[in-house]
Amino acid sequence: MCLNPAERPDAAPRSAIRAAAEALFAENGIDGVTTRTLAERAGVNTAAVNYYFGSKDNLALEVFRDVARRSVRRRLDNLARIEARARAEGRAADLAELVEAFVDAYVNEDSPRSGLLLAHLVLRHRVRPTAWTRAIVREELDGFALRFIAALRRAAPHLDAREVHWRYHLMVGAMIMILSDQMADGRMKRLSEGLCDPADRAQLRRQLIGFLVAAFGAPGNGARPEPAP
Predict the structure, then answer these.
(1) CA separation for the pair 51, 44 (Å, rounded)
(2) What is the mean pLDDT of the chain?
C-alpha cells in the first residue's frame, strides 16, 4: 500500500524542517539562516536537513515555490472575481480593485508570513539570482505578471503598453522596498519618529493602495496609448 507523504513514518521531521524554514526565511531571509539554525528550530539534528532535502538550496526552492504558487493562486482568484463582476455590470475592471488584489498577496491578515517570504524571494532574485530563484520567477510568476499587466492596460486605457509595464515594475519595487523596511532596521519608523510604521498592516495597505492607484491614474508621459488587447 502506498502511503500519503504526510502518513509516512518520517513525515514528522520533514514537516518540522519545512515549517522551521518558512518561519526563519520570513524572519531573516535566505542568507540569514544556517543549516544549524534550521535544525535547532525544527528540533532535529543538522544532518536531517540534508537527509530530507539534499541541501538548504533545495529546501529553499521547495518553500519559495510553494509560496509563489499560493500567491499566484490568490491573485488569480481575486482577478477572476473582479473581472467577472465588471463583465456582469458591463464595465471595465476598476483600477483600485486591481491594485488592491495585487497588494493583498503581500499584505493580508490571514497569511502575513507569505507576503514577507514573497518579498524575500523577489529581493534575493534581484540582488543575487540563482538557478532556483530564476526557475521560480520564470515558471511561477512571469505568466501571472503578464496576465495582470494586460488587466491593468484595460483598466488604464490612458496609458500605453510601455507606461503600464514601467508602472507595474515600479509597483513591485515599491512593495518590496516597504516590506524590506520591516525586515531591516525600521528606518521609515525611525525617520518619521513613529508616525509611519510598516508593521501596522492596516496603515501599510491603505498607504500602498492609495499611492499605487494614484500612480496608475496619473497621465502618461507623452506617448499615444496603444489599444489594449
Answers:
(1) 11
(2) 88
